[in-house]
Amino acid sequence: MASSLAGPVRVRFAPSPTGYLHVGGARTAIYNELLRASLGGAFVLRIEDTDRERSDPAMTRQIQQALEWLGVRWDEGPFLQSERLQRHRARVDELVEQGRAYACFCTPERLAPLRDAAVRAGRTFRYPRTCLELPAAEAARHRERGTPFVVRLRMPDAEVRFADLVRGEVAFAAEVLDDFVLLRSDGTPTYHLSVVVDDVDMGVSLVLRGEDHLSNTPKHLRLFEALGAPVPRFGHLPLILGADKKRLSKRTGATSVEEFRAQGILPEALYNYLALLGWSPGDDREILSREEMVAAFSVERLGGSASVFDVEKLLWMNGQYLWALPPDELRARLEPFLAEAGLAEYRGNPRLAAAAALHQVRARTLRELAAQLRPYFHDVAWDDEASRKYLAKEPRLPELLAELGRGYATAEPFAVELLEAALRQLAEQQGVKAGALIHPTRMALSGSTAGPPLFDLVALMGRETAVRRLAAYVEALRRL
RNA sequence: GGCCCCAUCGUCUAGUCAGGUCCAGGACACCGCCCUUUCAAGGCGGCGACACGGGUUCGAAUCCCGUUGGGGCUACCA
User: What is each CA distance from A273 to A68, A242, A265, A300, in whole angstroms?
Assistant: First the structure.
C-alpha cells in the first residue's frame, strides 16, 4: 500500500478562487500542513486563478483569511498563477521545439463528432493525432493563414504506472491517455500546463490533493517528464460526502469554512474534526492538539475511502473545545457573536462574562452560547404551554411566586445561599415541593425550562430584574 | 458508455500492507441507569458492522477473482 516517507518535503495547496474555501479543500490544506510539519520542508500556497471567467480576486483574499482563521500556516506564497502565464507559455515553446508537443489545428467542432462516436462505440476518446502527422507544407500554410491552433503534448505510447501514497499502485493503459491540450487557441495555458510548470518551478516534491485529480495524474506525470523535471510523489485523498452520500454540496448543509465560522464553530475544533475525517492517529485519541497530530501524522494512516461529513460529531467536538476554554479566551471568542444576539453593547460587561461561564457547558457553538445569554439583559417570552402545566400542578402558583418575589425584594445579601434558603423555606411553609416553585421561577426569569442551577441564575441576574420578571410573570399567569 | 478509485456498526474509524491474540476495539448519535431543582456536562451500561458470491489456507475482516453498490474523471474548466 502506501510507502513510507522520510526527509524534508515541499508540498503545496493550490485552491482556485472560484468560491469560499470548501471543507474538502481545507482538509487537503490541513494534511499538507501536517505532512510538512512532521517531515520538515516547506508548504507553498498557490492560487490557481487562470480561469479568468470564474476567478474572483476577492475570493483569493477570502481563502487566505479562512486558512489563517483555521490555523493553517504556509511557508511560501501565496503565488498567483495568473502572474506566471509568460513562463507557462515559454515552457510550451520549448516542448514544441523539442518535438515533445505540437500544434493542432483541429477545431472543437471537428473533434466533437469523433468523441461522440468513440463513446457510442464504448471506447475512450483519444485525439487521432491528425496534426501530429500533418505534412510540413500544410502546417506552414496554416501558419501563414493564421489558423487558430492549440498545442498538444505528445504522449508516449506506454502505460503510466505510479505508486500513489494513499492508494498504492495505480496504472493507466496507453490507450486511454491522449494528447491533451497544453495551450488554448487564445494562447492561454490550460490547468494541466500551469500546475505542472508551477510545481516544477516551486520545487514541489510531493503532491497531496483530492481524488478528483487522480485521473489527471498520468497526464501530469508525462508532462513532468517532458519538461525534464523530477517527478514528485503523488497522493490522492478521498472526497468528503454529504449525509446523502453524494459529494458534499450546499444542498446538504454548510460546506465552506466561512459558514462554520459564522455558526460559532471554533477553528481548532474544525481543524481537529477535519483532520480525523480520513486520518486517524492509530489509537483511540480523538481530541488532539496540533502538536499531537504532527507527532502522530503519517501518510500511511490516511484512509482511501470517502467519508461522510457528520455535523453532529463536529458539534460534539466543538463542545469539547468550547467547554475547555478559559474565561478570558471564552469572552474573546464570544465577542463576534454578541451583535446577532442583541448584546453588542454588553461587550466587556462582567455579568455577561459570568453568564457565559455559567452557560459554557450548555452550548455547543458560540452562536448558541450568545443566544443563551440574552435573557440576562433582555426581557423574555414565556412558554404558555409549560406555564399552564405549572399552574395545573399548583393552582396557588401566582400567590406563591408573588410571595417569593416579595422575599427576594428584600433578601440581603442577594446571594445563592440565601435565595435558595428563602425559596425552600417558602415551599415548606406552604406545603409544596421546592420543584413546584423552582421550575416556574426559571421560566419567569429565563423564559426556558432548561438552564443552569436556578439560584446561580437568579443571583447573577440581580435583584431588580428578578423581582420585576417574577411580578410580570405572576400577572401573565393570572391572565392565562 | 469507457477508464480509474473505494467498500468494517446509522456516521467517523481501529484492525487489512506482515492471515490466527477479532463470535471485531474506540468515538458521535440513539436508548437505559447513576448524579441532579431543570438542561447540560460527567460516570456506568445497552443497541449496533466485516456488502454479496466464489476461491486460496489447518485458519480470512485481512490474500485472489467475480458480482453488486458508491464515487471520480471522461473539455481549448480548474
Answer: 17, 15, 11, 19
CA angle A90, A93, A95 (to 5 degrees): 115
* A301 touches A288 (CB < 8 A): no
Torsion of CA A150, A153, A154, A156, to 10 degrees: -160
pLDDT digits (tens, 9 = 90+) for A244-266: 888 887 777 788 999 999 999 99
| Interface confidence (ipTM) of the complex | 0.95
How many contiguous H segments (helices) and E segments (strands) does chain A have?
A: 20, 12
Alpha-carbon distance of A351 to A332, in angstroms, equals 15
CA–CA distance, A208 with A33 (Å, rounded to integer): 10
Q: What Å value separates CA A2 and C1' B56? A: 25
Three-class DSSP category at A123: coil
pLDDT at A1: 34
Which nt is closest to the CA of A178, judged by C1'? B74
Name the band, by pLDDT with cuts 50, 70 and 90, for residue A4.
low
Contact assessment for residue A392 and residue A413, using Cβ atoms and an 8 Å cutoff: no
Q: What share of chain A is helix, strand, coil (3-state, %, to 5)?
A: 55, 10, 35
CB < 7 Å to strand B — which of 324-343 in chain A? none
Q: For residue A3, how many other CB atoms are within 10 A of its CB?
A: 11
Catalytic residue positions of A? 250
Question: Separation of CA A245 and C1' B67 in angstroms?
Answer: 22
